[in-house]
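As promised in the previous annual report, we have extended the structural survey to additional targets. Below is the entry for T18348probable pol truncated-rice blast fungus magnaporthe gypsy retrotransposon.
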Amino acid sequence: MSGCKFITKFDIIAAFNKLRMDPGSKDLTTFITSTGLYKYRVLPFGLTNRPASYQHYMNDILLPYLNDFVQANVDDIIIYSKTRKEHIQHVQTVLGKLHEAGLQMDIKKSKFFVQETTFLGLVISTEGLKMDPQKIEVIA
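The corresponding C-alpha cell record, generated without further manual editing, is:
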C-alpha cells in the first residue's frame, strides 16, 4: 500500500449465503420442524469454520491480485493504487472477478477513490496506517 494515492473499499452483500454446502455435508445440517425435514444448501450461521471457508473462497477469487493491489478480509475488500488510471483498471478488474463469482457489493457501504477509509479497525490513508481514533476512545 506504500505510495498509494487512491483507495476503494467494497462490502459484499449477503456474502456468506454464496457458499454452497458440500453435498456430502448437507445431511449433517438436517433439522426437523412441524412442517418437515430440512437441510441447508448454503453454509448456515454458527458453523465454526464458516468465516475461514468464506475467506478461502474470497482468496481464491482474488488470488492473482492479492497483495498486489487488493486485500480481502471476509466480506470487506480494499483496492489501492498509485495513479488514477491504474486505480480505474484495478477497480474494474476486481469488479469483473466479483461479477464472475456472482457476488455483489453494497453500494451504500462502499467508498470509491478516497484518500482515507477504515479497514480492519485501522484508518488507511495515502499517508499510511494508524489506529482508528474511535476504537482507541472506547479503550481509554
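The helical segments are 50-62, 84-100, 133-139. DSSP finds three helices and nine strands in the chain. These points will be discussed at the next consortium meeting with the crystallography subgroup.
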